[in-house]
Amino acid sequence: MNDKYGVLLAISSLPGDHGIGDFGQAAYTFADTIKAKGYKYWQILPINPVGPGNSPYISVCSEAIEPRYIDLNWLVKKGLLNSVKKYPSGDKVDYQKVWEFKKTYLMRAFINFKKHPFRGYKKFLKENQWVYPYAVFTYFRGVNNFAIWNSWNPEMKFYYDNHAINEIPKGAENECEFYIFCQFIAKLQYEALRDYLKKIDLKLIADCPFYVGIDSTDCWLNKDQFVMNEHYEPTLVSGCPPDAFSDDGQLWGTPIFDFEKMQKDNFKFLVHRIGYLASTCDYLRLDHFRAWDTYCVIPATDENARRGEWKIGPRTKFFDSLFAAYPDINVIAEDLGELFQSVHDLRDYYEFPGMYITQFTIFDEWCKSKDTQIVYPGTHDNDTLQGWINNLDENAISFLKRRFGEGDLFELIFDFTWEMDSYMTIFPLQDLMRLDTSARMNLPGTVGSPNWEWKLVDSSYIKKIKYGL
Fold this sequence. Notes:
Order of helices and strands: EHEHHHHHHEHEEHHEEEHEHEHEHHHEHH
Distance between the termini: 8 Å
Helix content: 25-40%
Strand order of the largest sheet: 9-6-3-2-1-12-11-10
Structural class: alpha/beta
Radius of gyration: 23 Å
Largest sheet: 8 strands, parallel
Oligomer: single chain
Number of strands: 12
Mean pLDDT: 96
């Protein structure tokens, strides 16, 4: 059996009883299903608390886990809840309604937990001190109507300049302890799932965004690590300059790291962030890898990225510091797009596997994958393979028929991708089920619904997986 194949599916896209995929039985069933079909890897998206537009790529905390992923049925088994009603099933996640539904039960469980705390809770607090600032930050966001921290009063803005890391504001104890409780339970459940994946020898690939949002504990606690003015407002933001695909470029708007200052302490903040996330999985995919080599800066006052400029990133200085602290982590480089040769050189210097996307390369007959690359028909940012084929024009269809011959284009391209040289080959579950555009996960450059909402309705997907080993 070839052990290089894997499946891409976000935790949120799993079926389940409560409106969103979570760490419950459906996750174990999915793992068993793809393992039984011969797959070796399960790739997920970031599991941090979702940010604007419910995106998992802009989170309020790099270490925290999205509390919506907590399995409520587990809380019943552990005696923290008597029972839980089922949430209406569907193929889309309504993040707001799901949180309202789950929060009600989580608060009940929290009340019972306070009466009889679980063994290991004190150890969790000792080993995960990031959870205190996360809870305090979440509390402060609420009392400030979710305004960004740089507009808070000085006591809140500089809270940890004057308080111990585990000190909670007076009057906020119950609410903060609830947020801490949610993280404790989420981590317990995630680690139990990881232990099971290890038991059945299914490797987990997780994902790490390059930037952090300004509305995050990462930025609030590390103000001096970003390019900001005296009011803690970004003066430069992230994006990509204009190219052949966009006259305006891409304006992402997240604050820029101050790499010159970071270098003075060997990138301590970033080394911890990447190292921590890498410790939670078998392989960590570094999104927007090119920015470690060259990153784009745009004046924060601009409305587009036309004035975007490339700056030299930390390159080997960062990765040498990272591997000095975490020598055993496994990294995948998301090296897509038009790249400078120096990006390829940085990737190859550390022998990081890169990425190869069939949808991006199939019209170039000279473009071949390598056994140092992770091959995908498409990622979470692409249309499904069937949806992509459905939207091709006549010229593209004619080219593909000349290249592959007459027949079912989906099957021809699927088999072509399957047979490519690769380090790994990862198929989105949607492609194994031959789903169309209605199952697309994300459309880059857009914010909000229907991005990040697609999910499986129930376990019937198991019988609908038409392609595999």
